[in-house]
Amino acid sequence: MNFSSSDNTGFGSVSFQHVSKNFRGDQGDLQVLEDFTLDIAEGESIALLGASGCGKSTLLRMLVGLDTDFDGEIFVGGEQVTGTGQERSMVFQEHRLFPWLTVAENIELGLLNETLSHSEKRSMIANHVKLVGLDGFGDRYPHQLSGGMAQRVAIARGLVGSPRILLLDEPFGALDAHTRAQMQQELLRIRATSRITTVLVTHDIEEAIFVADRIILLAPRPGRIAKVVKVEQAHPRDRTSFEYQQLQKELLYTMTGDEAYTDVRPRLETLPLSAIAL
Question: CA spacing 20 to 30 A to 274: which of 21, 28, 139, 244?
Answer without folding.
Answer: 244
